[in-house]
């Protein structure tokens, strides 16, 4: 299993937002510069994060992005599922109807257990915790407005 670049960049984008004062609006170009993610690429995942209710976007002179909920309430699982859809290592785990062997397949049990374990781990990490860890690792960054 490999997480996509879109997921990895979405997480970096979200951590960057979480490092700012709660409710503060942050410009995409500033996140782009700090995270070394092109603004064009940010445009690929921002609509997904917005429709999942994870971020707010505002236009105009004071436009930009902010978290839609407190960082402590947004998990890694929320971000992954916003960008990639429901967590599922193999399609038959969430939709047994796609495989005629789903009811008798031992491998499906393993895939299901692995999917649940990953989902559980990703649910334990929230943006607040990840932002605090990021802050402690990169003291040279200033994330204030």
Give a quick set of tags describing it:
145 residues, mainly alpha, Arc Repressor Mutant, subunit A, two-stranded antiparallel sheet, 7 helices, 6% strand, elongated
| Overall 3D form | elongated
Instruction: Report the order of strands and helices.
Output: HHHEEHHHH
% residues in beta strands: 5-15%
Number of strands: 2
Tally of separate helices? 7
Mean pLDDT: 91
Which runs of at least 5 residues are low in confidence (pLDDT < 50)? none
Question: CATH topology of the domain at 5-85 and 127-137, which one?
Answer: Arc Repressor Mutant, subunit A
Helix percent reads: 40-55%
The CATH architecture of the domain at 5-85 and 127-137 is: Orthogonal Bundle
CATH superfamily of the domain at 5-85 and 127-137: Winged helix-like DNA-binding domain superfamily/Winged helix DNA-binding domain
CATH class placement of the domain at 5-85 and 127-137: Mainly Alpha
Report on the architecture of this protein.
The protein is mainly alpha-helical and 145 residues long. It has a domain at 5-85 and 127-137: Orthogonal Bundle (Arc Repressor Mutant, subunit A), CATH 1.10.10. Helix content is 54%, strand content 6%. The protein has helices spanning 5-18, 28-35, 39-51, 76-84, 91-94, 106-124, 127-137; strands at 55-58, 64-67. The longest helix has 19 residues, at 106-124. It is elongated, with a radius of gyration of 17 Å.
Task: Break the fold down into its secondary structure elements and pairings.
Layout: H1 5-18, H2 28-35, H3 39-51, E1 55-58, E2 64-67, H4 76-84, H5 91-94, H6 106-124, H7 127-137
Antiparallel strand pairs: 1-2
């Amino acid at each position: 299993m490999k997480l996509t670049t879109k997921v990895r960049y979405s997480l970096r984008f979200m951590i960057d937002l979480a490092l700012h004062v709660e409710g503060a609006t942050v410009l995409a170009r500033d996140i782009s510069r700090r995270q070394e993610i092109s603004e064009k690429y940010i445009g690929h995942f921002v609509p997904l994060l917005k429709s999942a209710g994870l971020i707010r976007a505002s236009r105009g002179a004071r436009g930009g992005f902010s978290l839609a909920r407190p960082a402590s309430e947004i998990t890694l699982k929320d971000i992954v599922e916003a960008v990639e859809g429901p967590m599922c290592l193999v399609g038959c785990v969430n939709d047994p109807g796609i495989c005629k062997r789903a009811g008798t397949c031992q491998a499906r049990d393993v895939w299901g257990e692995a999917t649940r374990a990953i989902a559980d781990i990703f649910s334990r990490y929230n943006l607040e915790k990840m932002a605090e860890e990021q802050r402690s690792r990169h003291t040279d960054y200033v994330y204030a407005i």
